[in-house]
Amino acid sequence: YRLYPEVTFPDFVDDVADAIAALDNVLGHHRCPDGLPVVITGHSAGAHTAALLATDPQYLRRSGAAVNLQALVGLAGPYDLPLEHPNVKGKFDRVSSDREANPIALASAEMPPVMLLHGTGDNAVSPKHTDQFAARLRAVGVPVTVYSYDGANHVSLVGALATPARFLHPVHRDIASFLGRLPSEGTCR
Questions:
Q1: Which of 154, 18, 13, 19 is nearest to 92 (CA)?
Q2: What local confidence, expressed as pLDDT, does residue 189 receive?
Q3: Three-class secondary structure of residue 41 per DSSP
Q4: Stretch 30-54: mean pLDDT, rounded?
Q5: Which is more confident, 61 or 31?
Q6: Alpha carbons 18 and 65: distance in angstroms, whole number
Q7: Average pLDDT over residues 22-40
Q8: Rounded to whole angstroms, how far apart are CA atoms 152 and 168?
Q9: What is the DSSP string of 111-173?
Q10: How far is residue 94's CA from residue 82's CA, in Å, rounded to a whole number?
């Protein structure tokens, strides 16, 4: 997706929605009666974008994505983005309210199951974002699984997905286990 300052919100979210909409072409025009089953995931700003796609259906609808969201997996995401923060300023100048840019405010019972992962040593995005988003999801009835990794920082959390670094934290194993528990519904031809 394109980055700031080339684009501002919601352009980068639309970029990801457009990429998801293109999956049908990439996969050879499979026909899925209920939509192509998709799990959306992201780390940091990517987790924020993934969460926006899962909490606000306008993006996927606008892109024409014929998908059936099966789950959201978010790693160290800022789900209650402080729009006045120096690292965020400028990127979201087109929002009319904080609500439209914050997945925590947009969460609803229509969301798919969610897995949230965060490290206790994360100094880039506070683990409170994961805790508060998980509490909000539970409050609206969304099944949510949360993993907290002692000592994991912002980089080592996502780095532990790489084969040579999986000894750092069991992130890969935990995500694979979560995905393995999802119901397999529908068929694609």
A1: 13
A2: 66
A3: strand
A4: 91
A5: 61
A6: 7
A7: 79
A8: 8
A9: SPPEEEEEETT-SSS-THHHHHHHHHHHHTT--EEEEEETT--HHHHHHTTSGGGTTT-THHH
A10: 15
Contact 141, 134 (CB under 8 A): no
- Give percent above pLDDT 90 in the chain: 81
Residue with tokens 């995401």: 77
Is residue 175 a contact partner of residue 92, using CB atoms and an 8 Å limit? no
* Residue spans of alpha helices (H) in 5-151: 11-21, 23-26, 45-55, 58-63, 103-106, 128-139
- In the three-class reduction of DSSP (H, G, I as helix; E, B as strand; rest coil), residue 1 is classed as coil
**Is-above-0.85 flag for pTM?**
yes
At 141-180, the pLDDT tens digits run: 999 999 999 999 999 999 999 999 999 999 999 999 999 9
Q: Are 114 and 54 in contact (CB under 8 A)?
A: yes
**Taking the CB of residue 12, how many other CB atoms lie within 10 A of it?**
21
C-alpha distances in angstroms, 187 versus 21, 61, 69, 146, 181? 18, 21, 14, 29, 17
Query: Using CA atoms, how far apart are residues 47 and 88, in angstroms rounded to an integer?
Result: 15
- The letter for the amino acid at 113 is P
Best CA proximity match to 125, nearest among 82, 162, 87, 77: 77
